[in-house]
């Protein structure tokens, strides 16, 4: 059995060795691995345990303790001799000793003691809990977490003890330090060893289980557990069963756990094996994930800890993941992962594409190929396009739309499409795709021709985007047939590129399309297409009569005689009536309304618009023998013509529908007119009186006359420079001022004087309001 101690500064090791001699006497040797220093002592009783001072390498710390029936402290004196002292005896064999700083902890049959090497005092005694367990079969396990924290494991119990300084007022005859148990809990298995791991514990557990067949207890494999201590319990973090030789015959005392604090190494010692355990790092975790074929988790773990992993590369794990997915048949997932794993490595991308080609899965990887950074060889993209062209026209068309045209050799793909079109000349998908390829190749003429053949909606976008107006001058009819609304808007928006004259000429054989174009032109500007207004009369009459009358009303350039001729030929009464009235023949227009339309309301409305007494007379004469017309006139004539003129002409005995209601309405209209006149008169009188008063108040105000005012006639200052000199000034209500001698003499008919300036401007006479004399 041996124990080593390491000094962190000088890295000098000492080894203590115990040689058993026939179980009666033993020899203890302490010697340096890197120095000639040596100590040996022979004992006449068995030695169970030995511990050297943590800083044994220092000359002031040449100390070690041995445990058997007694706990002996050996230290080298100033004469380089070793002397011993008994620290404890009389409580059975001492089987465990741990030394940390100035504190020594040991365990015997009764419990655990701690000795302060500085004060030479024992500071505590922690009694054994389960006295039913034999201490030689279930020995105590001790470990120091730090200089003041001792962890005790005995049987199934774990105690965490903290060494604290005693307050000076409490000392008296007590040690300067005391121990407080800060945590205590039970475990499921017997404890063979303890070691600290940060704020957790590593526990070597001795496990006994009951056989299901024989129902007898047997020894199972020992376990190495990591637990998180709590105040009264613990939480298991991880647990591993250890396979050691002969574990079936081993007892709890046959296992030991030691650890190297600086290297985080743990040594599990059994009668036949020594197992070294170390804290698992991220590389170990990734190894385990890869072994379990959990590639996605391994990749994620590597990405999270990429600065800490040493043996693995993210790319290697990613490639292994892709291969695993391919082998499993998850081609779509494998292709999608390529984006993330391969990144911008063009060579790896090309390698993976060829792998997918070998297994016939180029379609799976096509949506994820890089299109910008990096750009692969054109052959790669062409290979995938050919694959789609052979089996999936829609997929091929999608790739052509989504991929930039500079990724592949456009002429090669165009030729391939044309070859396929020889077999299926009317395939719309291939034709549309060929048009897009022509567009990429700037062969806009061929592309436009295909789009027009297909009547594709993108034809207008193509024309606008690439300014193809010169190419469509002879294709205007095709564009109008496809979508007349969009075509007309485009042509009108680009008159500078395709003139109105050219469009009208191209549409000469298609008058219905010509009308659509000219109608929209007229709606935009009534004057731009004035040269075609005569033509438009016939076009409206033929294809769009509802808009003929609005056109005739809004146009100032159409020949009225031609329009009247066309409307009369087609018997368009409303339009003819409008043209007759516009040409001044209102009586003929009214006659047509009454004779052709038989619409008294329209006739009355027409007469109101013209506001001509003769028209009202004609209307009354025409209506006098038609009772329905008389009713209409009685209901509407009151505000324009004296109803008495109509009533006197009605023949006696004629039955007129709703005569009473019509007469009542006439009387009501008359009363309403009287009320309106009276109301207006009152308002007029009130306003006149108010304004008169306002004018009077204004005229009664004084007018400031000073040196800045001038005579409006001679333009000299109105006031003389010599104030003592007599003068005479005339000021009018319009604020114009004159020297009296500058005004003309009043006429013989009227003595009133008027402002010459205002009279000349026809602003009304302004009589003099003030005459100043001095």
TrEMBL record:
Residues 711-759 form the RING-type domain. The lineage of its organism: Eukaryota, Metazoa, Chordata, Craniata, Vertebrata. One of its GO terms (biological process) is macroautophagy. CDD domains: RING-H2_Vps41. InterPro entries: Beta-prop_Vps41, Clathrin_H-chain/VPS_repeat, TPR-like_helical_dom_sf, Vps41, Vps41/Vps8, WD40_repeat_dom_sf, Znf_RING, Znf_RING_Vps41. The gene is VPS41. Gene3D superfamilies: Tetratricopeptide repeat domain. Belongs to the VPS41 family. Plays a role in vesicle-mediated protein trafficking to lysosomal compartments including the endocytic membrane transport pathways. Keywords: Cytoplasmic vesicle, Endosome, Golgi apparatus, Lysosome, Metal-binding, Protein transport, Transport, Zinc, Zinc-finger. It is a peripheral membrane protein. It comes from Callithrix jacchus (White-tufted-ear marmoset). Its main location: membrane. CHCR repeats lie at residues 488-632. SMART domains: CLH. One of its GO terms (molecular function) is zinc ion binding. This is Vacuolar protein sorting-associated protein 41 homolog. GO terms for cellular component: clathrin-coated vesicle; early endosome membrane; Golgi apparatus; HOPS complex; late endosome membrane; lysosomal membrane. It is found in: Endosome membrane; Late endosome membrane; Early endosome membrane; Lysosome membrane.
């Amino acid at each position: 059995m041996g124990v080593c101690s390491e000094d962190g500064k000088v890295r000098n090791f000492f080894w203590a060795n115990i040689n058993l001699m026939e179980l009666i006497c033993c020899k203890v040797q302490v010697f340096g691995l890197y120095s000639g220093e040596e100590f040996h002592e022979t004992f006449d009783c068995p030695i169970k345990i030995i511990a050297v001072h943590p800083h044994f390498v220092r000359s002031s710390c040449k100390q070690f303790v041995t445990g058997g029936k007694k706990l002996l402290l050996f230290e080298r004196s100033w004469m380089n001799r070793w002397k011993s002292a008994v620290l404890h005896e009389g409580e059975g064999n001492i089987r465990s000793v741990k030394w940390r700083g100035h504190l020594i902890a040991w365990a015997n049959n009764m419990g655990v003691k701690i000795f302060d090497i500085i004060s030479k005092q024992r500071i505590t005694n922690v009694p054994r809990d389960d006295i039913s367990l034999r201490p030689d079969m279930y020995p105590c396990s001790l470990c120091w977490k730090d200089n003041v924290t001792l962890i005790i494991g005995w049987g199934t119990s774990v105690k965490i003890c903290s060494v604290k300084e005693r307050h000076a007022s409490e000392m008296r005859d007590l040690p300067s330090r005391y121990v407080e148990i800060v945590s205590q809990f039970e475990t499921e298995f017997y404890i063979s060893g303890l070691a600290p791991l940060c704020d957790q514990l590593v526990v070597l557990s001795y496990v006994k289980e009951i056989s299901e067949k024989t129902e007898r207890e047997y020894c199972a494999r020992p376990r190495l557990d990591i637990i998180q201590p709590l105040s009264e319990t613990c939480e298991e973090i991880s647990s591993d069963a250890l396979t050691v030789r002969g574990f079936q015959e081993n007892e709890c005392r046959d296992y030991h756990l030691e650890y190297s604090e600086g290297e985080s190494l743990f040594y599990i010692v059994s009668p036949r094996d020594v197992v070294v355990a170390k804290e698992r790092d991220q590389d170990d975790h990734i190894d385990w994930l890869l072994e379990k074929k959990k590639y996605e988790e391994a990749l994620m773990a590597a990405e999270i800890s990429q600065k800490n992993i040493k043996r693995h590369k993210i790319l290697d794990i990613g490639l292994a993941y892709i291969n695993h997915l391919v082998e499993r048949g998850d081609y779509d997932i494998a292709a999608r992962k390529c984006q993330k794993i391969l990144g911008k490595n063009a060579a790896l991308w090309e390698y993976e594409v060829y792998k997918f080609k070998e297994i016939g899965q180029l379609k799976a990887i096509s949506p994820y190929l890089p299109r910008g950074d990096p750009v692969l060889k054109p052959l790669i993209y062409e290979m995938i396009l050919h694959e789609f062209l052979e089996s999936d026209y829609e997929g091929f068309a999608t790739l052509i739309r989504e991929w930039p045209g500079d990724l592949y050799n456009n002429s090669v793909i165009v030729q391939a499409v044309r070859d396929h079109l020889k077999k299926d000349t009317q395939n719309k998908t291939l034709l549309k795709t060929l048009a897009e390829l022509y567009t990429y190749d700037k062969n806009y003429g061929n592309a436009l021709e295909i789009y027009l053949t297909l009547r594709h909606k993108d034809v207008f976008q193509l024309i606008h985007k690439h300014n193809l107006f010169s190419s469509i001058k002879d294709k205007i009819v095709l564009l109008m047939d496809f979508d007349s609304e969009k075509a007309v808007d485009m042509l009108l928006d680009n008159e500078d590129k395709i003139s109105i004259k050219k469009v009208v000429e191209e549409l000469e054989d298609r008058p219905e399309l010509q009308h659509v174009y000219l109608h929209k032109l007229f709606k935009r500007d009534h004057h731009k297409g004035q040269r075609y207004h005569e033509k438009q009369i016939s076009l409206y009459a033929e294809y769009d009569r509802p808009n003929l009358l609005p056109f005739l009303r809004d146009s100032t350039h159409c020949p009225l005689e031609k329009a009247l001729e066309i409307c009369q030929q087609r018997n368009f009464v409303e339009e003819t009536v409008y043209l007759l009235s516009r040409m001044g023949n209102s009586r003929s227009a009214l006659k047509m309304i009454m004779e052709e339309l038989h619409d008294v309301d329209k006739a009355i409305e027409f007469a109101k618009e013209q506001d001509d007494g003769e028209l009202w007379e004609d209307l009354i004469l025409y209506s006098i023998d038609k009772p329905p017309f008389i009713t209409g006139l009685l209901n509407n004539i009151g505000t324009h013509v004296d109803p008495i003129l109509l009533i006197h002409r009605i023949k006696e005995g004629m039955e007129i529908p709703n005569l009473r209601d019509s007469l009542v309405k006439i009387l009501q209209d008359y009363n309403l007119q009287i009320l309106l006149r009276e109301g207006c008169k009152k308002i007029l009188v009130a306003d006149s009186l108010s304004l008169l008063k306002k004018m009077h108040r204004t005229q009664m105000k004084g007018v400031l006359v000073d040196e800045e005012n001038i005579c409006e006639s001679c333009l000299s200052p109105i006031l003389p420079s010599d104030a003592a000199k007599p003068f005479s000034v005339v000021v009018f209500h319009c604020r114009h001022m004159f020297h009296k001698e500058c005004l003309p003499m009043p006429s013989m008919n009227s003595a009133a004087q008027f402002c010459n300036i205002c009279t000349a401007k026809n602003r009304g006479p302004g009589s003099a309001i003030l005459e100043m004399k001095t």
